[in-house]
Design goal:
The chain is of the alpha+beta class. The protein is about 30% helix and about 20% strand. A three-stranded mixed sheet has the order 1-3-4, sandwiched between helices. A three-stranded antiparallel sheet has the order 2-8-5. Strands 6-7 form a two-stranded antiparallel ribbon. Strand 6 and strand 7 form a beta hairpin. The longest helix is centred in the C-terminal third of the chain and has 19 residues. It is globular, with a radius of gyration of 18 Å. The protein binds a DNA duplex through helix 3, strand 2 and strand 5.
DNA sequence: GCGTGATCATGA
DNA sequence: TCATGATCACGC
């Protein structure tokens, strides 16, 4: 693990310095083995980038760069530069959320400042040959934040009303709620009808690819 | 089980 | 072809 950058400029500089390199090259420097594919190593690319950028590892619910208040997100893109996957934001709170406001939400805080690192994601490209793209430090525009807030409020209202199991990935224009669990047998507490506790699948908030594509386009064009 | 890092794989 | 629902690994 590299030392943690002490300024935004230093972090950006370091992100720029790894752009253009292949995963194999970056893995060699980090002394990490390159898996054949990501089937059983879904977080491998993210962890490779964390190592090179000096992000604080671990499963702590705080930004990757605490001092800088910056979240690191790798984003796999197609040959056309379009995101191939949705972007996980955070676990959704399903209980104790009465009176929870957007301003206090984990989603707002996590997305306040994000360092996006596009990476080649086409599965036909051998993992070691995929390259890291140019970084983008992003803060939501007023419009983007308004969209996020609207979706978040709609989804959280359903959760509070005990309708979490009626929520599908089709809800939300830019932010969606989907399972985030080891498997479909995992359970966590939530509100059911009439406020009675129920056990349900843990959920997470995800950004739709259409939304992240716009973010990349706004910066890189095309 | 929770939260971190996400992508897989199948049905529409 | 593509998005939804399911899944994988790890530290604690």
């Amino acid at each position: 693990m590299k030392p943690t950058p002490t300024s935004e400029a230093e972090l950006l500089e370091r992100a720029l310095s790894i752009s253009g390199y292949t995963f194999a090259e970056l893995a060699a420097e980090a002394n990490i083995a390159v898996p054949d594919n990501l089937k059983k190593d879904k977080g491998w690319v993210g962890q490779l980038l964390e190592w090179h950028l000096g992000a604080s590892a671990g499963s702590k619910p705080q930004p990757d760069f605490v001092e800088l208040g910056i979240e690191l997100k790798s984003i796999p893109i197609s040959y056309q530069g379009k995101p191939l996957e949705t972007t996980f934001v955070s676990v959704a709170p399903l209980i104790g959320v009465h009176g929870l406001k957007w301003a206090q939400s984990h989603v707002k805080h996590k997305l306040a400042k994000v360092l996006w690192i596009p990476v080649e994601g086409e599965r036909e490209i051998p993992l070691g040959e995929r390259r890291v793209g140019s970084p983008l430090l992003w803060t939501p525009s007023a419009d983007e934040e308004a969209q996020l807030q609207q979706d978040w409020e709609e989804l959280m209202e359903m959760i509070v009303l005990g309708q979490v199991e009626q929520i599908t990935a089709r809800h939300g224009e830019v932010l969606q709620l989907r399972p985030k669990a080891a498997n479909s047998r995992a359970l966590t507490e939530a509100y059911g009808a009439n406020g009675k506790p129920i056990m349900t699948l843990p959920r997470g908030f995800y950004l739709r690819t259409q939304f992240t594509h716009q973010i990349l386009q706004r910066h890189f064009g095309q």
